[in-house]
Amino acid sequence: MKKSIGAKVFALPSPVWVVGTYGENNTPNIMTAAWAGICCSVPPCVAVSLVKARASYGNIMKRKAFTISIPSSKQATEADYAGLVSGTKVDKFTTANLTAVKSEFVDAPYVEEFPLILECRLKQTVEIGLHTQFIGEIVDIKADEAVLNEKGIPTLEKVLPFVYSTTDLAYYHIGEQLGQAHSIGMKFKI
Strand pairing partners for 69? Predict the structure, then answer.
């Protein structure tokens, strides 16, 4: 029997993405976001939800662009730090020993050291409540060659991303492959 525990943000897990934007005077900024995910396949889009108080919120509204830098589990400390302090008060790139790179296709920086980058043009905003959801159309993806398979596609086992648990406020590695999607459930198809 299930027990009701009320309305909470316990959808498990959440990705750990680092949002890159430019602030005043073209200052590169990053912030960690877990309220995020893929929201459309054609055109390819992601959504990230931010509160108005964040520097990144204003930066995206002004520049109409952002990046998503996806860190590997080896970079959890740096990614966590990017969500702990305000970009209006500190240069997070310098403090965390990270390199800001100007995106090729959008007006936003990304983190050179992180293995997978999504360059996004702001497509739409949705006011939800405390958060505003920024829907970004992916205009380019950059990946370290080391995380690509023989077909030139990044793989989970090579990127080694990690996830955030909203229930215990902790980061976790992603586990082993269970089977091929769109295949393992075929045994139930009539």
Answer: 18, 117
**87 band by pLDDT with thresholds 50, 70 and 90:** confident
Please, what are the domains in the chain? 14-177 (2.30.110.10)
Distance (Å, whole) CA 160 – CA 129: 33
Nearest to 120 by CA among 143, 147, 139: 139
9-65 tens-digit pLDDT? 999 999 999 999 999 899 999 999 999 999 999 999 999 999 999 999 999 999 999
> How confident is the prediction for the chain on average, in pLDDT?
96
DSSP annotation string for 77-121: HHHHHHTTS-TTTS-HHHHTT--EEE-SSSSSEEETTSSEEEEEE
What whole-number distance in Å separates Cα of residue 175 and Cα of residue 182?
19
Cα gap 175→55, rounded to integer Å: 34
C-alpha distances (whole Å) from 153 to each of 37, 142, 144 are: 19, 10, 10
Share of the chain above pLDDT 90, in %: 91
The closest of 52, 53, 54, 62 to 24, measured between CA atoms, is 62
